Amino acid sequence: MKILLVLVTLFLGRVGHGEANERPPLPVERPAGSGVIVHHDGYVLTAHHVVASAKRITIVTPGEFRAPAVLVSVDAEHDLALLKVETVGLSEAPLGYAGAVKLDQEVIAVGFQFGLRETTITRGHVAAVRTRGVQRVFQVDAAVNPGNSGGAVFNRQGEVVGILTTKFTHPSGIVPEGMAFAVPISYATPLLANIPDFDFSAIGKVRKEGKKGKGTSDPVPDMARTAVRIETIRMSETPAASSQSVATPPPAETLRGGQTSVARTPVPLVRSNETVPSVGEESIDRVNVQLQVDQQEAVKRLLEQGLTPPAGMVLIPAGEFLMGMEDGLPDARPLHRLYLSSYWIDQQGVTNTQYRACVDGGSCLPPKVRAAFDDPQQEQHPVTDVTWMQARAYCQWGGKRLPTEAEWEKAARGIDGRRYPWGNSDEVIQKSRGALTDGKAATNGAEPVSMPLATRSPYGVSGMVGLVSEWVKDWYAEDFYRTSPARDPQGPLRGTFRVLRGGSWMERPLELRAGYRGWDEMTYWGPTLGFRCANDAP
To answer: What is the pLDDT of residues 338-389, one digit of tens each?
Structure first.
C-alpha cells in the first residue's frame, strides 16, 4: 500500500511538472518605438536602438495596417536603421537638408508616444546643436516621450530633418522634461543608398519650391500619414533597450571615434626622458624672440633671391614643432613632434570685404546668411556663415589653399607646445569675455580682424583664437595623431567631417587652446565659422 502511494505521488508530481513546461508563455510583441516612411516601396527609417536585438519586427501604420519588416541596413554609430516592408503605395515623407537647420527654428516631432495607437504631433524649436561622439545632434524642446524614439523631426515645410534618438539624463539620475535629441537626416545618406532608384535630387525640393510660393498647404496631415509604429519581439527574455530606455549623451566636449584612419609611419612621440622645451612665461618670451629672428632671416633670404612676400601673408619657417595636447581630449593626444616645410599663411582671417571681391567676380557664392556680410559696419569683420567648400573656393580664387591642420597649429602656437598663442595664461580670455556681454549678437560677437580678442601668435599671426573657428584642409579622424607622418602631414585620405581650428568668441578656454580640434560637416555653416588661406613657400 505504501509503495502504491509513493508511485502515485511521483506520477502526479511528474505530470504537474510536465504541464508547467508544456505550455511556455508565448512571446509578446511589444511597442518599441516609431519610424518614418522614406520611400513608397515600403522603406522605413528609424533609430537603431529601437530594433536592436529584435527577433521579429512589425510595422504598424496609423491606419493599423500591420506587416512584418526586415532589417536592410544599420548604422549603429549614428543610431540609424533602415527597414523594408513588403508592400507598395505607402505615403513617403520628403527629406530636407539638415545643414539648413538653425537655432530656434521651429520643428515638429511625430511619433507614437508610449506605444499608443494614436499619432502624436508636438511642436518645438531647435534649442541647441551638440556633439555625441563624432556626430552632430540637434537638441529639440518639443514634447518627446518614450515611444517617440526613431520618429521623424520635420521642418515647417514638412521635410524630415532628423530622427529622434534619445532623451537626456543628468548625471544625478534626473530626466529633465523637454530635452530630446535628433540625428540629422544627412547621416542617413549611406542607408538610403540601399534603396533602388532613390531620388537624392529630391532632397530639399519642398523648401526650394516653397520659396517660389508653392507648398503653402498645411503639411501636418501628410506628416502623420508617413509615421509608423514599430513593435518587436526580442531575442531573449531579458528586457532589452528600447525607446523607453533613456540614454545619457556624453558631454559636448567628448570626442571619439574618427571615421577613417590611414596606416602610416608612427610619429615621433615626446618621451618622458627627452628634454622638452620649457613653457614657463620667461621661456615663452625667449622663444618668441628666437622665432621672430628666424622668421626675419628666412624672409631676408627670400628677398635676396628676388622673391616678394605675398601681401597680407606671414612666412612660417621650416622646422619642427610640438603638436597636440597631452592633457587635452583624446583626439588631441599624443603630444608629438612634426617637421613642416616653410609656408605662407594669412596674417588675418578673411574679411567680408575680401570675400565680397570673390563674390562680385562670380567665383564665390555669398555666405548662407548675409546679415553680417551686407552690414557696412562689419566690412573688416571675419566673413562667417560659409561652408568648407566656399572657403576652399575663395582660397583657390586667390591662388592659395586652405592650411593643413598642422600648419594652422604651428602658426598659432609656435614650436614649444604652449596652450594659447600668447602663452599659458587664460587671463586674456577672461578679460575679453567682458566685451562680449554688451549686445554682441548684432555683430556675431566677433571683433574686426584688426582688433583680435587674443594677442598675436609668436609669428605675428592674429585672430587665431577668440574670433571665429576656422576651416582647414584636413578630414577629421580622432586617432590620426597616432599614425600621422612625421613630416608635412596632410590628414586622412577620406572622412565624414572636416577639421575646424581655433575657438570662436563664444567658446570656453578649453576650446580656445591652440591644440584643440573641432570638426563639422563640410556643408555646415554658422556665425562662428570663418577661415584663412595658406600657400607653399620656396
So the answer is: 999 999 999 999 999 999 999 999 999 999 999 999 999 999 999 999 999 9
Please write down the long-range contacts of 275-284, taking CB distance under 8 Å and 24 or more positions apart.
Answer: 276/322, 276/417, 277/322, 277/415, 277/416, 277/417, 278/416, 279/416, 279/417, 279/418, 279/419, 279/423, 279/424, 281/423, 281/424, 281/425, 283/416, 284/416, 284/418, 284/423, 284/424
Residue in the block written with cell 599663411: 345
Percent of the chain with pLDDT over 70: 74
CATH class for the domain made up of 281-536: alpha beta
Confidence grade of residue 390 (pLDDT, cut at 50, 70, 90): very high
**Least confident window among 78-87, 111-120, 153-162:** 111-120
For domain 30-234, the CATH architecture is: Beta Barrel (2.40)
CA angle 331, 336, 342 (to 5 degrees): 110
DSSP secondary structure, 27-59, as one string: P--EEEEEEEEEETTTEEEE-HHHHTTEEEEEE
Q: Spell 372-405 as b/e; 16+ CB within 10 A means b.
A: bbeeeebeebbbbbbbbebbbbbbebbebbbbbb
Mean pLDDT is highest, among 201-215, 230-244, 346-360, 456-470, for: 346-360
Report the pLDDT value the prediction gives residue 27, as an integer from 0 to 100. 56
197: alpha, beta or left? (left if phi > 0; alpha if psi -120 to 50): left
Q: Which grid cell sits at 524? A: 555646415
Annotate 175-191 with DSSP letters as a single string: --TT-EEEEEGGGGHHH
Residue scoring higher pLDDT (307 or 3)? 307
471-519 pLDDT tens trace: 999 999 999 998 899 999 999 988 889 999 998 877 777 788 899 999 9
Helices marked H in 266-387: 281-304, 352-360
Instruction: Tell me the C-alpha distance between 507 and 513, whole Å.
Output: 10
Residue 415 has a pLDDT of: 92
Q: For residue 436, which phi and psi values (nearest 5 degrees)?
A: -100, 5
Rounded Cα distance, 437 and 431, in Å: 12
Q: What phi and psi values does residue 308 have, to the nearest 5 degrees? A: -100, 125
Residue found under cell 515623407: 93
Residues constituting the chain = 538
C-alpha cell at 191: 542607408
Residue 25: exposed, middle, or buried by beta-carbon count in 10 A (0-12, 13-18, 19+)? exposed
Beta bridge partners of 399: none
Domain ranges of the chain: 30-234, 281-536
C-beta of residue 415 within 8 angstroms of C-beta of residue 319? yes
